[in-house]
Structures are given as C-alpha cells and as structure tokens.
Design brief:
The protein is mostly helical. It has helices at 28-41, 53-56, 63-66, 69-83, 100-109, 114-118, 121-130, 139-142, 144-154, 167-183, 228-235, 240-251, 260-269, 275-302, 306-333, 335-354; strands at 14-20, 45-51, 90-94, 159-162, 192-195. It has two domains: 1-199 and 305-357, Rossmann fold; 202-303, Orthogonal Bundle (Tyrosyl-Transfer RNA Synthetase), CATH 1.10.240. It is an enzyme of class 6 (ligase).
Length: 357
C-alpha cells in the first residue's frame, strides 16, 4: 500500500466540518444534499469529516447495536471514497477516537439552557423515529446538539454544510461559541451553517407521510451501493408528492434553472406523461450518478486495510487539533491554571521535604 500524507493544514483556507452517523450505508439523499458539495469544496477548504459513532449512541445505545459499528463505519468510509472524497485533502476521522471532544462537550453544556434544547423539533423527530417518548429521552439525546457543537468548535470550523433540519444545531454551536468568547476569551470562530442544495429528498415507498425524509433510521433509502436492479425497483414505488420530490431533485438539480422539472411536472399533471415514463427517466438519471460510484467503491473495498489506515491517520490528525483546542479552552476558563497551581504547590512541598536540616 502506498504511503499517504495527512491533509494539508494550510492556514489560508477556511475550515469545513460535517459528518455522518454510521447507522447504515449512505444514500441518494446524502449524495444530492451534501456529498457532492463536500467533494466540490475539498480544494477551497480544509475539510474535517466525522464518522459520528458517538452520535449513534443517542438512539442506539444497546450492546448489539454497538457491535454493528465496525461494519457500518467501514461502509460509510467506503461511500465517502466512492463519491470522490480524497483523504489527501480531507481528514476523515472516528468521533469516539477523539476523547478531547467528550471533555469539551461537558464544558459547553454549562453554556446552553436545557429549555433551548427541549424546544428543538429535530430532537423530537429523532426521538419519534427511534420510538423514544419524553419520559425515556436520555440526557445524551437531549444534548445531541451540544455534542455536535463540541465537534464543530473543537476543529474551530467556520463552515458547516448540513441538511435543513440541522441548521438549528449549527445555530446552537454558534450561540455557544459566542457565549464562550464573551465570558472567557476569543477562542472560537463563529460557525456558519450552509443548507444542502437538496434540503430533503423524500423516502422510498408508498406508505407513511408523503413528504417523509429519506433516512437510514426510517429504512426508506436508495443506498449508494444498491445494485441497478434494486435502484430501479425502489424508484418504481414512487408516486404523488414523493415522485414530485424526486423530479425536483434529479431533473431540476435542486434549482431547475432551465425549467426541465417544471415541464415534467406540467406534463405529468396533465396526463401527458405517465408514472411509468417518469420512473424510467428517474432511473436513467439515478444510474448516471450511481454507476461510477459502484465501480470506485469496489476498487477501494478490494484494497485490504485501506479504510482502516485512512481512519487511523485522520483520527490522529483530529486528536492533535482537538487537544490543542481543549488546552486553549481550559486556559481561558481558568481550569488549567487551577490544575497547574495545585501541581506547583505539591512540587514545592515535595522539594521542601528533601531539604537538609
């Protein structure tokens, strides 16, 4: 295996941070909403990409679910590589392998009211999907945005590309950073959230709310590694609002500058274009996106040990950044001077004991 260098830390580049929970393989919603833009920004930004295994514990803390993480983590990294993420340009790291983030999260918890977290619709939705009611909601799930803030602020990231439902979490990170800077010292840049080009791709299947989001947790996805036959069969289940959502995302490319999606909507609504004909067009467009990814993924998967090497290298890099940030935080808050003061007194006492009469 050829030796690789760690991503550059060029000071002139703004830092970008985003990530994925390894609850299953990445899907078409991730590709259109986030992954394509990550690839496009690798040259203009210093990118940190989290494989956010700690975040899975908020809704999946059971031992058997944790046992699934090695397979899921590997699948996420292979998906990232297949879409064009370059580990020479982007730091891909395992969240739980950076213990300084846990420490930072505890300190940041002191700066955000619990009532603010309880009011977040995204947390309520996560709990609903996981089948967790208010009585059984864990402190970890309620504090999910605080751990996200620790991820963002440990890297002192400026740009945070997220889905529309997570923009409120970036705002919490921004508020926490601002509060910290005002209370202690200017340690953190204020992060800016950037909504995905396709903020929500509907899930596959005829059942449930028509506008429900494609989600690993909901099990209604077209995975990046799905075969062409599986993709086609899933797309042929679309109808109604779901079908319209796919037209907007795949034909309109999220903005529909040339009006293709509008024309297809009009023809479909007028009965000039059948569901089957729309399905055929969507299958063609989706295959154009996914076929090259399958080929690249197979090549990376065949390179034994590559995924593990990338994760270890990236996590070591992330640790360096995180511990440097934590040190600054502890200094600014006065916690490090407290500890150093205790050590100084203890050392002087030990030296005094060794002095002759």
């Amino acid at each position: 295996m050829p030796e690789r260098s760690l991503p550059s830390t060029a000071a002139q580049k703004d830092r970008l941070l985003t990530g994925d929970r390894p609850t299953g393989p990445l899907h078409l919603g991730h590709l259109l909403g986030s992954l394509q833009s990550r690839v496009a920004m690798q040259d203009s930004h210093e990118c940190f990409l989290i494989v956010a295994d700690l975040h899975t514990l908020t809704t999946r803390p059971e031992r058997d679910r944790i046992a699934e993480l090695p397979r899921n983590v590997r699948a996420v990294v292979l998906d990232l590589l297949s879409v064009g993420i370059d580990p020479e340009k982007s730091t891909i790291y395992l969240q739980s392998g950076v213990p300084a983030v846990y420490d930072l999260a505890i300190l940041l918890q002191m700066l955000i009211p619990a009532s603010h977290l309880r009011s977040l619709a995204s947390i309520a939705q996560m709990a609903k999907v996981a089948g967790v009611d208010d009585e059984r909601m864990s402190l970890g799930l309620l504090g999910y945005p605080v751990l996200q803030a620790a991820d963002i602020l440990m890297a002192r990231a400026q740009l945070i590309p997220v889905g529309g439902d997570n923009l409120a979490h970036v705002e919490i990170a921004r508020e926490v950073a601002q509060s910290f800077n005002e209370m202690y010292a200017e340690v953190f840049p204020l992060p800016e959230g950037r909504a995905s080009r396709v903020p929500m791709l509907p899930g596959i299947g005829p059942d449930g709310p028509a506008a429900s989001k494609m989600s690993k947790s909901a099990g209604n996805t077209i995975n990046l590694g799905d075969t062409a036959d599986v993709v086609a069969s899933k797309l042929r289940t679309l109808g109604g609002a779901r079908l319209r959502g796919f037209i907007d995302a795949l034909i309109g490319n999220g903005d529909d500058d040339d009006g293709q999606a509008k024309a297809m909507h009009a023809a479909h609504q007028a009965g000039k274009l059948s569901d089957a004909a729309v399905h055929d067009r969507l299958i063609t467009e989706t295959e154009a996106l996914l076929a090259p990814l399958r080929e690249r993924r197979a090549a990376f998967e065949a390179d034994e040990g590559l995924v593990e090497e990338i994760l270890v290298d990236g996590t070591i890099r992330a640790r360096e950044v995180a511990y440097a940030t934590l040190q600054q935080v502890r200094e600014a808050m006065g916690l490090e001077p407290l500890w150093k003061g205790l050590i100084d007194v203890a050392e002087r006492r030990a030296l005094d004991r060794k002095k002759p009469y």
